[in-house]
Amino acid sequence: MFGVVFPDRSFPMDISAFSQIDTFHWILDMNTFVGEAYDQVREICIFLLNSFTLPPDKALAVYIQSPGSEFQFCGAVTTARPSAVLTLNWPEPGGQLQLTGPDTAPVSAKIGVSVEDLVALPSLDVAAEKGVERVAMKVGENLFNYMQSFCGVDGSKLIVPMDILDRWFKKFQERAKRDPNFLKSFRM
Questions:
Q1: 45-63 pLDDT tens trace
Q2: Is 95 a member of any domain?
Q3: Domain shared by 66 and 113, yes or no
Q4: Which of 74, 92, 121 is at the close of a domain?
Q5: Distances in Å between the alpha carbon of 58 and those of 71, 72, 115, 136, 161?
Q6: Boundary of a domain, candidates 121, 146, 168
């Protein structure tokens, strides 16, 4: 039906690595895969296997769940898009972490996969939209910090030199050229 790969962390795994909940739902317990370091797993590549035909109005949706949190949609694959590399932005763990007792199994992070109606899912570009938003916020924060280092205060107003945007942009471009990891740091 489907397979997954965690880039730099695993060989391809098929559906047998997942626990099947019912006909259309599967769960991968990250505790058995990476232990408590689930949040270090940043990407998943999911793909449909050749022998599986998904109806055109259906999708294989991927969700993640940190311990004690709700499931969060990450993306999906369809027959038109039979594979995808999805970013795993793990939600903050929820309050249920403290509720485990000595006789209960530890709460762990999970990856859920389910067959769903394509129209019921959020846009498949949600991850890309969130990524762009995150990059924009980081660039804006970088600009603000740069401007703050040059500003003076006049009451409740910040006073900055007129050419501050040009100077910041030039410095930003130069750093991006010098350090290939600089722009990558904005995606995290």
A1: 999 987 677 888 999 999 9
A2: yes
A3: yes
A4: 121
A5: 20, 19, 7, 33, 55
A6: 121
Residues 98 and 11: their CA atoms lie apart, in Å, by 34
Packing angle between helix 164-178 and helix 126-148, nearest 10 degrees? 120
Query: Is residue 90 domain-shared with residue 5, that is, in the same domain?
Result: yes
Please give the DSSP secondary-structure letter assigned to residue 122. P
Q: How sure is the predictor about 20, in pLDDT bands with cuts at 50, 70 and 90? A: very high
Total-model pTM: 0.62
Query: Which tokens go with 57?
Result: 């109005």
188 domain-assigned: no
Alpha carbons within 13 A on the beta-carbon side of 99: 9
Q: In what order do the strands lie in the sheet with 43-48?
A: 13-14, 2-5, 43-48, 83-87
* Location of structure tokens 């030039």: 170
Rg of the chain over all Cα atoms, to the nearest angstrom: 22
Write out the two tokens for 175.
Answer: 């750093």
* Domain of 41, in residue numbers: 1-121
How many angstroms separate the CA atoms of 184 and 178, rounded?
Answer: 13
> What CA–CA distance (Å, rounded) separates 91 from 86?
15
Cβ(47)–Cβ(113) below 8 Å: no
Nearest to 2 by CA among 87, 79, 70: 79
In this structure, the answer to whether residues 93 and 142 fall within a common structural domain is: no
Domain count, the chain: 2
